[in-house]
Amino acid sequence: MGLLDRIFGSKKDVVPAKSVPHNENCRKLMEFASRVEKLLKENRYLAKSDYKKHLEEYQKTMDFFGVLLESGMLPNFCDVNGVSEKDVMQAIDYYNRIESYVEAHAEAAELWLFRISYLR
Question: How many CB atoms lie within 10 A of CB 71?
Answer without folding.
Answer: 10
